[in-house]
Specification:
It is a single-pass type I membrane protein. Its main location: membrane. Keywords: Disulfide bond, Immunoglobulin domain, Membrane, Signal, Transmembrane, Transmembrane helix. The structure is a single chain. The protein contains 3 helices and 19 strands. The protein is α+β, with helices and mostly antiparallel strands. Among the domains are: about 120 residues, Immunoglobulins (Immunoglobulin-like, Sandwich); about 80 residues, Sandwich (Immunoglobulin-like), CATH 2.60.40. The strands form 5 sheets. It has a 6-stranded mixed sheet with strand order 2-11-10-5-6-7, with no helix packed on it. A 4-stranded antiparallel sheet has the order 12-13-17-16, with no helix packed on it. Strands 15-14-18-19 form a 4-stranded antiparallel sheet, with no helix packed on it. The C terminus is likely disordered.
Length: about 300
């Protein structure tokens, strides 16, 4: 009897398998992976499988709303009556659903994805006769954006003994890019970063810089997709005088020159006056001497001169 019961059970199981009768309790909808990553601008397919059923009425893909607590957004739907496919307004021209009822597949196709397509998507199956199965499943789509060309800048004065910062930043990038600096000497030979240099969020801090700090610095911005670079040519110069100091020095030099010129003019003027005074005194002495010799009044000096 035991052998007979066992044989009957085996026969029943074999029969059910051969006839395609499912022993599961209901519909099962499944998306293989929970996260799908794709580069911006590319096309993506999110697969969805379900248990084939003769009573299935429709399959649809929906996505999260732009604003929380608002109704979900319809992407595309498939209706078994008439085998009709409907692409909803927001996704017209770039969404489609590929359905195979016998194989139990309903794959979502999205073309030219953008950053706005980063959200959760849900595959739903409507089967009026199924009250026990799992009729939906969700997955997240993450649209990756390559780092944009980073912008490099020098913050601070590139002069001896100063502290400066080299900055590097990409305006775009999903996930957020990471940054790495490399240094080359003036002969374009790779070298380690200075001992006291530090990197943080794309900023390279250089302390107490000198002529040896001069060279080429390259920043690489990287995320999961690809990388981009920018470079800085750093020339460290001796300290320079600022405009105020330069103007002060020039003003001082001009002031000293004017002062010296005034002194020279005064000296020349005083010397000239002294020479004229001495000349006048000499003439007076000569005239007095002549007057004494000829006995003439001072007014007749020319006549006395003729007589003598």
């Amino acid at each position: 009897v035991t052998f007979t019961l066992r044989s009957q059970l085996c026969f029943l199981v074999t029969f059910l398998c051969l006839t395609g009768v499912h022993m599961t309790s209901g519909m099962t909808v499944n998306i293989p992976d929970k996260v799908y990553k794709i580069a911006r601008g590319d096309n993506v397919v999110i697969p969805c499988t379900f248990t084939p059923s003769a009573t299935l009425s429709s399959i649809s893909w929906t996505t999260d709303p732009d604003v929380k607590d608002e109704p979900e957004i319809n992407v595309v739907g498939y209706f078994t009556t008439g085998s009709k496919t409907k692409v909803y307004n927001k996704y017209k021209g770039r969404a489609n659903i590929e359905v195979d009822l016998q194989k139990g597949t309903a794959n979502l196709q999205l073309q030219s994805v953008t950053s706005a397509d980063t959200r959760d998507y849900e595959c739903k199956v409507q089967d009026p006769d199924d009250e026990e199965g799992r009729l939906s499943d969700k997955a997240s789509l993450v649209v990756l954006v390559a780092p944009s060309q980073p912008i490099c800048n020098v913050v601070g004065k590139a002069e001896y003994f100063q502290n400066i910062e080299l900055t590097c930043r990409s305006e775009e990038g999903t996930p957020t890019p990471t940054y790495k600096w490399q240094s080359y000497n003036v002969n374009n030979v790779p070298r380690p970063l200075p001992l006291k240099a530090s990197e943080q969020n794309g900023a390279l801090s250089l302390v107490n810089i000198s002529m040896d700090t001069s060279g080429y610095y390259i920043c690489t911005s990287t995320n999961e997709i690809r990388s981009a670079k920018c470079n800085v040519t750093l020339r460290v110069d001796p300290p320079s005088l600022n405009m105020a100091s330069t103007a002060g020095i020039i003003g001082g030099v001009v002031g000293v020159a004017v002062f010296v010129g005034i002194i020279i003019c005064c000296c020349c003027y005083c010397r000239r006056r002294r020479e004229k005074a001495e000349e006048y005194a000499m003439r007076y002495m000569r005239n007095t001497s002549r007057t004494a010799r000829c006995g003439c009044p001072l007014s007749f000096i020319p006549l006395c001169s003729q007589d003598s």
